[in-house]
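ok so dumb question maybe but i'm new to this and my supervisor (M.) told me to 'just get the structure for Phosphatidate cytidylyltransferase' and walked off. so i did the thing. is this what she meant?? sequence i used:
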Amino acid sequence: MKILKERVLPAVVGVLIIASAIIPFAIFGASHYEARIAAYIMATAAVFILSFEILNAFGVKLVFRIFVSMLAALMTFMPIDTAETLLKPGSFDRTQLLILIKNSVFNWQSLLIISVIALIFVLIELQSRTNMTAGDRFLRFVHIWFSFFYVINSIIFLLLATFRDWMIVLFILLAPSLADIGGFFGGKFFGKKWIKASFAPNISPKKTWEGFIVGVIACWIFAAGMIFGLGLMENKVIPQTFVFSITPFASVAGDLYFSYLKRLNATKDYSKILLGHGGLMDRHDSISFVGTLVAMVYFFISVK
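this is what came out, is it supposed to look like this??
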């Protein structure tokens, strides 16, 4: 029952909540600007909360957390011309939406604002943390930059992809869960039976190599069914094969990276918003890496 409560039930509830939000946007988003406005509002709120939680883990004071998170939330509307196009009345065909996606992910405006946010963070810590070396400050600048990079680009891609192909959105959201659940059960039933060394002892001591292997296999099985069975990635073989191969490892990398940031800042959870299950960032860690991976692939997919 404990396993059911801690792993399976939250995943099922999360899927139902996500599906209830995504499906209406997917159905009406391309043809109804009201649905696109609602989706933008939800994405903006998600960016604000995730940014707030990251800064909370880094020990930033409340007033600065709110200000920087609001600045980050504005990136949902970058580039501005894409937001203006999508938020005005009218409908879009699939080719137009793919072009908008390619023009929006990793846009220079967002990269500039992420750099400004990281610089603001350093300036804040110059006042609040006076006993830190220049090397440590630079390292924390890099971590803030990359954490916001993964969060912002994954949310922007999920937002725009919802209007074009909601199945790719479900894939990005569900694949990390399969890797996580597979890793949990693999570690529980087979952990350290064949490989005694821990998988990541300095970041997540409870993770085992057996759990990692089972999680990768579970994710591969799920990814094969969705990517090849449903023709995701615009039904192009090379992008499909690449995403299929890398997704489990991107999921684990996201989990480990954001767990490392928590250990770096001596905190257990990014927040308590999920009542015993941590914060949204504790759930979005792997998703941010997988979403950014898929966004990178879409960036290079040719438009017909």
